[in-house]
Amino acid sequence: MPELPEVEVVRAGLEPAVTGAIIETVSVFEPRSLRRHVGPSEDFVERLSGRRILGAVRRGKFLWLPLSPSAVPGAVPAAPAAVPVAVPKTQDIHHFTGDFVENRADGGESPAFSEARGDAHGEALVVHLGMSGQVLLRDAGQPDDSLLRIRLQLNSPAGGPLRVDFVDQRIFGSMAVDHLVPTPDGQPAGLGHPAALIPSQVAHISRDPLDPAFSDTRFFAALGRRRTGIKRALLDQNLISGIGNIYADEALWAARVHYDQPTETLSRGRMRSLLAEVRLVLGKALAEGGTSFDAQYVNVNGASGYFSHSLNAYGRQGKSCPRCGRPIVRESFMNRGSHFCAYCQRVR
DNA sequence: CGTTGGCCCTGATCGC
DNA sequence: TGCGATCAGGGCCAAC
């Protein structure tokens, strides 16, 4: 499943290929893949057509491609700042406990009217891979994937025509055009671009633990206030982003923490050790994913990429714990499998 | 208000 | 060999 390392491999592959390219045509084969786009497919197509891609940025599992100002005539009228615009939805993301500002992008500043219109800070194509999404770079003439959902035809000044195919079996992934809002701390919104601007629908997502602006102490404090199990907290993208089921199990195994250990019982030392293991496993997977990457052909398969990693717990139920030799157990939890060593990882 | 359970979705795999 | 049942889980949201 695509988690932070897999999404970063996609971002790193897209960046050199699509930066500077013009989106010439957009084809939507599966409207459900636009679930996160506000507006119909036609709007999605119109908004993208003719615009230049300025880069590829990632925070956690979210990826976005900042766009040049709209080329569609009349699509970007100057915001009439004197006219108040109701902002029903954006207000929802402006209330949260203020002690966690540094790891979040929605830190309580009131949105300007022009931001609500969506064009004050520009727009971006937001991509989420969900469970099974892939972004594939292909030359014209290569056969279509049967699970092709969306296609962008690009023309890059340097590389010529190029196809960006969004392939997704389960349609949990999505693409959307969204407007950018400033990050409250003024730090870069994600990896890949220095701009402190983030898509509005990604603003509530926490910074990920590989982000230089991630604050360990804020994370520990917020974690200590949670009243839930540690794995649920690790999977909560509003608290810490980029971790999915696989790397959660792996980090918990490495730190010898049971998945249902109550967060309020974790000492700072155990939190620190767990966060260190999270960073280790994400970094190691990222390094492995990077080796299989081909600049000409982005082929990121979440399942096969993941299986190539050296896993200690995930998917190893019935096999022996690499540390103590006792069997790895699998329990159903949160509609997911949790894999752990019942001896090494006990609630305490 | 924070926390929690359920839902979405379909190709691959399993079991009879 | 065929076919129905089961599995996989990220993000969101209603409900508690």
The largest beta-sheet arranges its strands as: 2-3-4-8-9
Q: So how many helices?
A: 8
Percent of residues in beta strands?
A: 15-25%
- Separation of the first and last Cα atoms: 30 Å
Number of strands: 11
**Largest sheet at a glance?**
5 strands, antiparallel
Shape, per Cα inertia axes: globular
Which value, in Å, is the CA radius of gyration?
21 Å
pLDDT averaged over residues: 83
Compressed to H and E, one letter per element, the order equals HEHEEHEEEEEEHHHHHEE
Structural class label: alpha+beta
Structural features, described:
This protein is 24% helix and 20% strand. The chain contains 8 helices and 11 strands. It has helices at residues 4-18, 41-48, 113-117, 216-225, 230-235, 245-255, 268-291, 302-307; strands spanning 22-28, 57-59, 62-66, 123-128, 133-138, 148-156, 160-168, 174-182, 197-199, 328-333, 336-341. The strands form 3 sheets. It has a 5-stranded antiparallel sheet with strand order 2-3-4-8-9. A 4-stranded antiparallel sheet has the order 1-6-7-5, with helices on one face. Strands 10-11 form a two-stranded antiparallel ribbon. Strand 2 (57-59) and strand 3 form a beta hairpin. The two termini are 30 Å apart. The structure holds a DNA duplex (16 and 16 nucleotides).
Features:
8 helices; 5-stranded antiparallel sheet; 348 residues; 11 strands; DNA-binding; single chain; 4-stranded antiparallel sheet; alpha+beta
Summarize the structure.
The chain is α+β, with helices and mostly antiparallel strands. It contains eight helices and eleven strands.
